[in-house]
Amino acid sequence: MLPKFELDLSSVVISIVCTKGITFEEDDDTENELETDVPFEQLQKGEEHVNPRKFDKLDELIKPIAEQLYEQQSDFPLTVIYVENLESLWYYFRYLEYELKEKGYNGENITENRMFAQYHSDYPETMKQHIVKDLCQSKPILRLVLATVALGLGLNAPSIRRIILCRPPTTLQKYMQEIGRVGRNGENAEAVMYFNNSDLSKARAGLTSSVIEYCKNELFASGNYW
């Protein structure tokens, strides 16, 4: 049961999915971290300096999203994927670049026409402003944003139709804040959260018992295992 906040989520379908051991936000050894100048083709070949098994896990989430965006283009429901781990965010972004190529643009292949974007605290301020401005349009060019919580409170983008959380936030208040950015125009919308047992470990810093209880109760009620 979710706490009551001043949000109207009546048009939003909320679901949680247990990934049965697949986690999209695990804390790996730093020696296997993604190097941002490594071509995606090398990642696919499993070079020695990366951990290909780790990226196989990330592919489980981003592959169907990329396929849907490739097919639907501007009809793709405007989606925000919240990611805690910058390494995973960068991987998702480069996966989309590699798979979509020119199909990732609405018109000329320039940044302003790209249909997917990344948003985090280290991103250039001018680009963050461009993303927020576009999201708030009635017909934004952007269809998919990979974001950290830096895409925060105060964002009022009625066109957002889907929120995907790669990991449960540590509190229910944060959870409500993140899914509360979808369905603001009253149209049908969707909020999906993925997790596994390691995401709900009591050893995870800041994780509240209310989040653990909510995830387990909702999962039991839905039987939504992946």
Automatic annotation (TrEMBL):
The record's InterPro entries line, in alphabetical order, gives: Helicase_C-like (IPR001650), P-loop_NTPase (IPR027417)
Domain Helicase C-terminal, by residue range, is 57-226
What broad class of enzyme is this?
Answer: isomerase
**Which UniProt key words apply to this protein?**
Hydrolase
List the Gene3D superfamilies hit by this protein, alphabetically.
P-loop containing nucleotide triphosphate hydrolases
Pfam families assigned to the protein according to its UniProt record, in alphabetical order: Helicase_C
Q: Which reaction does it catalyse?
A: Couples ATP hydrolysis with the unwinding of duplex DNA by translocating in the 3'-5' direction
Stated EC number for the protein is: 5.6.2.4
Entry's Gene Ontology molecular function annotations: 3'-5' DNA helicase activity; four-way junction helicase activity; hydrolase activity
Q: Which GO terms describe its biological process?
A: double-strand break repair via homologous recombination
Q: Name one GO cellular component term.
A: cytoplasm
| The organism's place on the tree of life at top rank | Eukaryota
Q: Which family does it belong to?
A: Belongs to the helicase family. RecQ subfamily.
Q: What is this protein called?
A: DNA 3'-5' helicase
Which species is listed as the source? Mytilus coruscus
